[in-house]
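Posting for a labmate who doesn't have an account.
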Amino acid sequence: MTPWQRLRASWRHSTDRWLLSLAALALAASLLDPGVMMERSLFDHVIVLDVTQSMNVTDEQVDGRPVSRLAFAKHALRQSLLRMPCGSKVGWAIFTEYRALLLLAPIEVCANLSELRSTLAQIDVHMAWSGNSEIAKGLHSAIGIARQLPDKPSLVFVTDGHEAPPLNPRYRPEFDDKPGEVPGLIVGVGDLRASPIPKTDPQGQPLGFWRADEVMQTDLRSQGRGGSVSGETLVDDRAGVAVPMLGATPGFEHLSSLREGYLRLLAGEQGMVFLRLQSQQRLAEALLSPALAKPVPVRTGGRLVLAGLAFCLLLARYAGPWLRKTRVSKK
């Protein structure tokens, strides 16, 4: 009799012993938690929220209830966190005036979900330290933050695109950013129809809306004044194609709408993708875009698989005879 035949004969006569032995072996192996290295697509985002006054315009809805642009964006981001795979990271930053400020460096989503959500909930327009809203400069500042972080996260810039003071349509700030160096997403929020901008006091109490005579209606260059940053250079767009919503709209700058054309222009110049925020689902899909994924080697443990195998073997050992008896009794 060959060794294989002897093994088969032993199995027939000692099935229970074999099942128990294999179950014990599987349980012992599970204690060692063997694993293999596999490559997973994870995500690392620093998300910058525009907290300037126009983001307080109430032209969005959540569950049928009117909310501000900022509240709508925060709601979508809060829900999107649940779609992020464990191991991914998210950090928060704000934008106002012409700078972005990092509030929380990217941290792992699953282990810090509560902290991420509570921090997000505290972000509002009262954190702004200036009434200005220079979108292009803020985007440049945010790119600098993402570039300097050690893990090189992608950038998600959430804004309505409202420049205040308005830009000259022929002269815009010039930057030395390399398109695509920081992968990212510009998320436009707000209605395409213009709405009045709420005005509040330093304590956040409503004071009505900004009037036309209270808001700068023309760009600084047309008034013979320089930029907000000394020595800044401008790109001459005289030979370029007119971009929708790029220049000032005299008499209407106290009203605000989503400047989609302008944000698409900025996204194209920086090698980013533009998304108009209309639903939480689309935002979550954009945040999980393969273009923003980072292949990361991840160890996959085998403990659960081995424990499950041991359970199945024990089930076969003790449930098998009972099933056979049940079949015999039915006959």
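Reply:
Got it, the structure tokens are right above this. The radius of gyration is 29 Å.
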